[in-house]
Amino acid sequence: xxxxxxxxxxxxxxxxxxxxxxxxxxxxxxxxxxxxxxxxxxxxxxxxxxxxxxxxxxxxxxxxxxxxxxxxxxxxxxxxxxxxxxxxxxxxxxxxxxxxxxxxxxxxxxxxxxxxxxxxxxxxxxxxxxxxxxxxxxxxxxxxxxxxxxxxxxxxxxxxxxxxxxxxxxxxxxxxxxxxxxxxxxxxxxxxxxxxxxxxxxxxxxxxxxxxxxxxxxxxxxxxxxxxxxxxxxxxxxxxxxxxxxxxxxxxxxxxxxxxxxxxxxxxxxxxxxxxxxxxxxxxxxxxxxxxxxxxxxxxxxxxxxxx
Length: 308
Known about the structure:
This protein is mostly beta strands. The chain folds into 2 domains: 38-149 and 296-305, Immunoglobulins (Immunoglobulin-like, Sandwich); 151-295, Immunoglobulin-like. Helices cover 6% and strands 45% of the residues. The protein has helices at residues 2-16, 228-231, and strands at 38-42, 50-52, 59-67, 78-83, 98-99, 109-110, 116-117, 122-129, 139-162, 176-178, 180-182, 187-198, 201-210, 215-217, 234-240, 247-248, 258-262, 267-275, 281-305. The strands form 4 sheets. Strands 2, 4, 5, 9, 11, 14, 15, 17 and 19 form a 9-stranded mixed beta sheet that branches.
């Protein structure tokens, strides 16, 4: 029993190291952690700070995408859109300002020794823009790059299962908040609480929070391309305890333990009830998966000067 208590204490210490503010990932933990999905930036001098009118100064816009999270993103699930300038004014069509990368964006991973392996950055280039018309004086333009992509979060916790749910002490305690570990992603499961609601039934209550700077919408909707009011802030949730008959509240368009939940003011709470008929006393892993579309943008400034 003493060895078991020591092991549980060590686990608690390891999990605490993954809480916000901890110094980097710890060896042996399942996730690297973090609250970023894709890191988006303009490549230096693409666009340049200034160009000239008259069609003699072609330039490129190049967007760098770096996957800082732990979910690989397929190239067909990423769209980069340029806005802020009229494409026709720069000798392009509206469709020229929407592109997907040529390569998948690999997730961050850890090797067997705990070393973090970064995915390679991916670049999306909008080539040969050219302000062909003559202008009077200099004009300043904001250039936005908006990136929409499918992403997801994996979260794990452990709950206590006992024949007598009211019994205190032993291997574990049924009642109380349980540590949660999350993969690196902008949406996180920030807490999970286990409580007793009957002789043979427990309730799991967990909180989902938006920790990133972008916008959430239903997975597969191309970031609210249509029906924005219906799709925004919706996350698809799947929760599994490995035990039968798990039933959750507030999940829509799914099954008893899957479905969409809408985040209000950046958060949502989901409650599930789990019948317990197991014999013995043990810890049980809870797996929670979150799926969503995510979009965010970066901005820079372009000055078009009149050429003499």
